[in-house]
Amino acid sequence: MGLGDDIERILWTEQEIADKISELGSQITRDLRHGGVAPPPPIAVVVGVATGAFMFVADLVKKIDLSIAVDFIRVESYGSGTVSSGRPTIPFDLKLDVGGKHVLLVEDIIDSGRSMACLIDYMKSRGASSVSVCTLLDKPARRKVDFEVVGEGKFYSGFECPDEFVVGYGLDFDEAYRNLPYIGVLRPELYQ
């Protein structure tokens, strides 16, 4: 019995995810190259939201054909549950200085919007000149807080996610299932 047995159904295959990431990387490259973000390198700081976005960040940066820096930040709002606490915190800070730079926040999934709003405000407070957001999954059915990109920033979204609990490709339930190469719906009896 393997991890895949806990999946009710697959929403996006490994190939579909790879194709979408290629599209996103190409769009981000075009926008940063032509969007008024001036050299010198690095043109942007890609900030991955740990831990869920680690696979997405690794694959996405390979598709961005520009000089970039990469860092990670941690924001917590779930703990071991399946519903956001509504009070995000930042227990793990950046190593790089983002002052005067374009920041591309890369997230695995945006649902309530609270964590992303918190991160955008944080990047502004650190002096970022503009902030873009790239999420692999967007779950607008759960949105509680609207967030806005900053300056010349843009919003990039891979897939619109149904209002179901999903795991795989970095997304977890209680730290499990991150290593699945696809994204699927976790069988409800495993977390209810």
UniProtKB/TrEMBL annotation:
One CC-aspect GO term = cytosol
On whether Acyltransferase is a keyword of this UniProt record, the answer is: no
- What are the boundaries of the signal sequence? none
Major site of localization recorded for this protein: cytoplasm
Keywords per UniProt: Cytoplasm, Glycosyltransferase, Magnesium, Metal-binding, Nucleotide-binding, Purine salvage, Transferase
Enumerate the GO terms in the molecular function aspect.
Answer: hypoxanthine phosphoribosyltransferase activity; magnesium ion binding; nucleotide binding
- Pathway(s) it belongs to: Purine metabolism; IMP biosynthesis via salvage pathway; IMP from hypoxanthine: step 1/1
Question: Domain Phosphoribosyltransferase spans what residues?
Answer: 15-173
For this protein, the Enzyme Commission number is 2.4.2.8
Compartment list: Cytoplasm
- What PANTHER family does its record include? HYPOXANTHINE PHOSPHORIBOSYLTRANSFERASE, HYPOXANTHINE-GUANINE PHOSPHORIBOSYLTRANSFERASE
Q: What is this protein called?
A: Hypoxanthine phosphoribosyltransferase
Q: What species does this protein belong to? A: Genlisea aurea
